[in-house]
Design a protein that fits this description.
- This protein is an alpha+beta fold.
- It has helices spanning about 10, 135-140, 165-180, 185-190, 205-210; strands spanning about 15, 40-45, 50-55, 65-75, 75-85, 95-100, 105-110, 115, 120-130, 145-150, 155-160, 235.
- The chain has one domain.
- The strands form two sheets. Strands 1-2-3-4-5-9-8 form a seven-stranded antiparallel beta sheet, covered by helices on one side. It has a five-stranded antiparallel beta sheet with strand order 11-10-6-7-12, with helices on one face.
- The two termini are about 20 Å apart.
């Protein structure tokens, strides 16, 4: 199943900021777009793994958020999804429900992490993303209205996905492809194509995207990549 990434707070003690990589020169395969958007920030840990996060992603666990980020070590590239809420994590079994316009996706939240930072108390779900969730992510990015909820026996926490978060999802998916991630059939089925310039102004690239959400003046990149996860695929309902 899919997932949101290892919290920045979790690996903050071992991170060192890497020089921003706009044109990585490591000999690894690249997608159709060679450049990394300026809106992504590269963080390299002591093990040699570089994490790419969009500049709009919050640095504190106590902020509500729904975002993707990229991990890269040598020529291996992967994608993670993260959902976070302020406060204490639910004490009972939790499910995640994501709604994008007329489509709803559900899956179990098998692992939740609690922040120990008293100044930014929060909890989050952070997992590898698998191919089955790519369609869901593009649906969210192209939606007019999208929400993500953690539902447990005693409470529900809900976050409305902002337009900025939707734009960031598409930028990160495009950068993932630029770093060597494979374009998914799910994205192709929606009519998405690789943007002409990662991170720069580009229009929505497919009839489904234009039908679902009118293109913005500033545009969005339109590429995607497969996702991997240890969790099962989500159920989908209309």
């Amino acid at each position: 199943m899919f997932a949101l990434c290892a919290c920045i707070a979790a690996f903050a003690p071992t991170l060192v900021w890497a020089a921003q990589e706009t044109q990585p020169q490591d000999g690894c395969p690249r997608g159709a777009v060679g450049n990394i958007p300026e809106s992504l920030r590269a963080v390299k840990d002591e093990a040699g793994t570089t994490f790419y996060r969009h500049e709009s992603s919050p640095s504190k666990a106590g902020e509500q958020a729904f975002f993707l980020y990229i991990g890269k070590k040598a020529c291996e590239v992967w994608l993670r999804v993260r959902i976070q809420f302020p406060g204490d994590k639910p004490s009972s079994k939790t499910r995640i429900r994501i709604k994008a316009d007329d489509k709803a996706y559900e899956f179990a939240a098998l692992r939740l992490t609690q922040s120990e930072d008293t100044d930014s108390r929060g909890y989050w779900y952070d997992e590898l993303v698998e191919p089955d969730h790519l369609l869901m992510l593009f649906k969210v990015a192209a939606s007019a209205n999208a929400t993500v909820r953690f539902e447990s026996a005693d409470r529900t926490d809900e976050h409305v996905v902002s337009d900025r978060e939707k734009q960031a999802l598409t930028v990160v998916l495009g950068a993932y492809h630029s770093l060597g991630g494979k374009l998914s059939g799910a994205a192709a089925s929606l009519g998405f194509t690789v943007s002409a310039a990662a991170g720069s102004a580009s229009d929505w690239c497919g009839p489904q995207a234009r039908k679902t959400r009118p293109p913005r003046a500033h545009g969005r990149p339109c590429d995607a990549a497969p996702m991997r996860s240890r969790v099962g695929a989500p159920s989908v309902s209309s």
